[in-house]
Specification:
With 389 residues, the chain is of the alpha/beta class. Helices cover 39% and strands 15% of the residues.
């Protein structure tokens, strides 16, 4: 990387949740005197059926330098593998055009490993956000593989830092910055009141619901290693939450293998007339989504937002299945299996607790974006990695 000019930092956003994971870092990079932000939006982050974030990104004041369309239809393991291959090809072209000094890869999705592979083979240092964590599914393999492809590690917790070091990474290149999503949660706490009607501001599908006496939020994605069971799993959740005495605000699943099973289960549930107390959304601006979570009686599903942001916000969570298996979690979480009796029991147990739990700073205190920008401005990773013994 050349001295005497701004470093060009290319951040690749590949999915709806990735934007929330990186927003405050984007702002900090954009405002840093020694950095130039390059923004690539790719994969499902561009697709309306999975909640495109393009308009939100532009409204937030960021310029999109490249759009990379790379998602193949199918929502199965084969389409995921082919999308990864196509992503390597298309992102390589984007990097060739932009000529960044460093590429930032976010979290553990299959599109993320395409970013890391393309950057590595083009001799561009790769910075990885959220490495070193432990979960279930294919994400576990992808996350640790991206760690080995990366040169700078911007981890979200002390435990994650220890794991990255155990993987043999150079301690001088591993930084515990916290997670940028916690920055957004901290900002939201300055005005946490739900002052908007989500069904008016973010039109979706369903009846207009009265939320004044409380509501449940559901966010459940397919488990890629159990994709054949995705419809059965979502039906168990639908059956459990339908029994509860509160309206249900449900967010559409991501593009992983098994998403077609989840989607068909939801559509069937609506068609047979059992969704009178449900409203379905595709996407929501990050701060509004966090306000919705903060004021909910409970979050149900298997999203990492229940482990990260909800721990910081003290929101009760019912975490279903193996998707977040072994990830460090706070006292706000109750785990259960894909059985409607177990899910119902866990939800009802959360209702017996006295509202929110105490704030837990497992994944940061709200300054991750600035820390990440400072690391990206000063770090000097060696181009050739060697295993640290």
């Amino acid at each position: 990387m050349k001295a005497g000019r701004k470093r060009k930092i290319c951040v690749v956003v590949t999915a709806r949740p990735s934007y929330s994971r990186i927003k405050t870092a984007l702002k900090a990079i954009q405002e840093h005197p020694n950095l130039e932000l390059q923004l690539v939006v790719a994969a499902s982050a561009l697709l309306d059926r999975y909640g495109s974030v393009v308009n939100q990104i532009v409204q937030d004041g960021f310029k999109i330098d490249e759009k990379v369309f790379m998602v193949l239809e199918g929502e199965n393991p084969t389409s995921m593998a082919k999308t990864t291959g196509l992503g390597i090809m298309e992102l390589s072209t984007a990097f060739l055009n932009l000529k960044p000094d460093m590429v930032v890869s976010i979290a553990d999705r299959y599109e993320t490993i395409a970013t890391a592979i393309a950057g590595s083979y083009m001799n561009i240092p790769v910075a990885h956000i959220q490495g070193g964590e432990v979960t279930g599914s294919i994400d576990e393999k992808v996350r640790h593989a991206v760690t080995k492809l990366s040169d700078i590690h911007l981890v979200a917790s002390k435990c994650s830092m220890e794991r990255v070091l155990k993987l043999g990474e150079n301690a001088d290149c591993v930084f515990d910055t916290g997670c940028p999503s916690i920055d957004l949660a901290a900002e939201m706490l300055e005005s946490p009141e739900l002052t908007f009607n989500p069904m008016v501001k973010y039109p979706g599908v369903g009846n207009k619901l009265d939320l004044r006496n409380g509501y449940i939020v559901v966010m459940q994605h397919p488990v890629t290693t159990q994709h054949a069971e995705s419809r059965q799993q979502i039906e168990a959740t639908l059956k459990a939450v339908a029994k509860q005495p509160y309206p249900v605000l449900w967010f559409w699943p991501n593009v992983d293998a098994g998403a077609d099973g989840v989607s068909s289960g939801i559509r069937h549930f609506r068609e047979i007339g059992e969704a009178e107390n449900f409203y379905f959304f595709k996407n929501m601006a990050p701060h509004d989504f966090l306000r919705l979570l903060y004021n909910a009686r409970c979050l149900v599903g298997n999203s990492s937002v229940g482990i990260r942001e909800c721990a910081f916000l003290g929101v009760p969570v019912v975490n279903i299945g193996d998707r977040q298996s072994n990830r460090t979690q706070g006292n706000n979480v109750i785990d259960c299996g894909h059985d409607h009796h177990e899910i119902s029991k866990a939800i009802e147990l959360q209702f017996t607790r006295n509202g929110r739990t105490e704030i837990d700073c497992l994944y940061g205190k709200g300054d991750a974006g600035e820390q990440i920008a400072n690391v990206l401005a000063t770090a000097q990773p060696p181009l050739e990695k060697k295993l640290a013994y």
